[in-house]
Amino acid sequence: MVTTGSSPDHVTCVTVIYTLASLRRLDDATTLLKRMPAPSSIAWNAVISGYAQQSGSEHEVFGMYKDMMHGTAVRHALDANVFVGSSLINLYAKCGCVGEAMRMFDFSYEKNIVMWNAMLNRLVRNELQE
Question: What range defines the domain where residue 27 resides?
Answer without folding.
Answer: 1-56
